[in-house]
C-alpha cells in the first residue's frame, strides 16, 4: 500500500482538519507529521492536552470504527504504534 493511499485514507478520518502540504515533503512525511501532531495533541490548548497514550487509544478507536478497508486499518494502526514508540522515547 502506497503512502499516498494511506495519507488519503487518514485524511478521510479527519474531515475538518487541514494537513501540511509542503511541496518539499513526501506523502509519507506528511502522514508521519499528521500522526505525530495527533499523538502530541498539538491541535489542543496546552492546558487540556492529553498524553500520547490517550491520543493513541482515541486514534486507534477512530481507525477501527471507520469505513476503511481492513488493509488500511492494519497499516494505519501499525504506523500509529511505531510512531507512538518513537514519540515517547
| Coarse shape | globular
* Overall residue-averaged pLDDT value: 91
Largest sheet properties: none
| Number of strand segments | 0
The unreliable regions are none
Helix content: 55-70%
Q: What percent strand? A: under 5%
Which structural category fits the helices and strands? Answer: mainly alpha
Order of helices and strands: HHHH
The total count of helices amounts to 4
Radius of gyration: 13 Å
Distance between the termini: 27 Å
Description of the molecule:
By secondary structure, the protein is mainly α. Helices cover 62% and strands 0% of the residues. It has 4 helices and no strands. The mean pLDDT is 91. Helix 1 runs parallel beside helix 2.
Structure characteristics:
about 90 residues; mainly alpha; about 0% strand; 4 helices
Please write out the topology.
Layout: H1 3-13, H2 27-39, H3 52-64, H4 70-87
Helix pairs in contact: 1-2, 2-4, 3-4
Short description:
The protein is an all-alpha fold and 89 residues long. 62% of the residues lie in helices and 0% in strands.
